[in-house]
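Regression check, heme C case 97:
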Amino acid sequence: MKYLLLFSIFITSLFSMEEGAVLYASCKFCHGLKAQMIYVDKIPSIKDMDLETLELKLKLYKEGSIDAYGYGPIMKQQMKNIPDEKISVLAKYIKNL
Ligand code: HEC
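Current build output:
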């Protein structure tokens, strides 16, 4: 029974990694395969911020309420395709890259 439970946790986490990869696919172009890229010499690597900050920023971009470097609308457009309930999956995926 215990093993079955562990196994299902393992499968669930595998699945959310897969899901994260799908969600992150569109971000690679600007933020890099490992979220390490410095975009237009201005936007710092998004991997280095802590998980809470990352999640919060993604939510705020989606709402259109931040514009930290003058490119907020670009990020708003990007976040339009990410459902609210998937933001935390995406943020965790980025931290694990
Ligand atoms: C077309 C290029 C582009 C794509 C694609 C893109 N971003 Fe961004 N991202 C930017 C720009 C430009 C900024 C700076 C926005 C601003 O002025 O606040 C930014 C900012 C961010 C920040 C905040 C950085 C900081 O230091 O405050 C995070 C987090 C982020 N993006 C995550 C993502 C995620 C997750 C995706 C995929 C859903 C994504 N981005 C897709 C260009 C992009």
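Comparison notes: Residues 26-27, 29-31, 39, 43-44, 46, 54, 57-58, 66-72, 74-75, 78-79, 82, 90 surround heme C (CB under 6 Å). The radius of gyration is 15 Å. No diff flagged against the previous build.
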